Amino acid sequence: MTAVAFTINGKAVSVEAEPTTPLLWVVREHLKMTGTKFGCGSGLCGACTVHVDGKAVRSCQIAFSKVQGRKVTTIEGLSPNSDHALQKAWVAEQVPQCGYCQSGMLMAAYGLLNFHPEPTDEDIALLMTNLCRCGTYPRVRAAIQRAARALQGDRA
User: Fold this and answer.
1) 13-23 burial by CB neighbour count: b if 16+ within 10 A, else e?
2) Is the distance from CB of 84 to CB of 92 less than 8 angstroms?
3) How far is the C-alpha of 32 from the C-alpha of 113, rounded, in Å?
4) Which of 101, 98, 99, 106 is nearest to 74 (CA)?
5) pLDDT digit string (tens) for the chain, length 156 residues
6) Which residue, 56, 85, 93, 135, is the most exposed by fewest CB within 10 angstroms?
7) pTM > 0.90: yes or no
8) pLDDT at position 153, please?
9) 32: how many CB neighbours lie within 10 A of its CB?
């Protein structure tokens, strides 16, 4: 067992677990933040997407020992009131169906907008690699575009 200290959603924590434990399980089981979902366990589907130091990562693929001293953001940390422009756009565009992939999708979209604040449809198609079994990709694209416009208005 190894103790690892890091910041999650702005709060300093220290967790003791096996060093190779995927960050996903530390978030869900040790810290009881269940918004981050287990999907495939292979880093392919993106249901487990979180941010580490501002970069979207698949939490099932990063050992929690690798987050020592780093900043982790989960869906719970995106907005305390669920009023982030992406969350509002997700509702306005009626993106969720079953909802299982949504937290990972939102975190991936958040990462996309951090690095591409005015994404084209091609940027979104290329950079949004999360899977949605319900096939809401056109609505995801529309929501990301809507959020990008809202965020641009906030910056102006």
Assistant:
1) eebebeeebbb
2) no
3) 27
4) 106
5) 999 999 999 999 999 999 999 999 999 999 999 999 999 999 999 999 999 999 999 999 999 999 999 999 999 999 989 899 999 999 999 999 898 999 999 999 999 999 999 999 999 999 999 999 999 999 999 999 999 999 998 765
6) 135
7) yes
8) 82
9) 7
Residue 12 burial class via C-beta count within 10 angstroms: exposed 0-12, middle 13-18, buried 19 and up: exposed
Bridge pairing between strands 2-8 and 71-73: parallel
Are the C-beta atoms of residues 39 and 54 closer than 8 Å to each other?
no
Beta sheet of 55-58, edge-to-edge order = 11-17, 2-8, 71-73, 49-52, 55-58
CA 97/CA 136 separation, integer angstroms: 8
Nearest to 147 by CA among 70, 93, 79: 93
- Identity of the residue numbered 69: G
CA distances from 108 to 17, 24, 46, 57, 145 (A): 27, 15, 8, 8, 14
Provide the residue type at 97 as one letter. Answer: Q
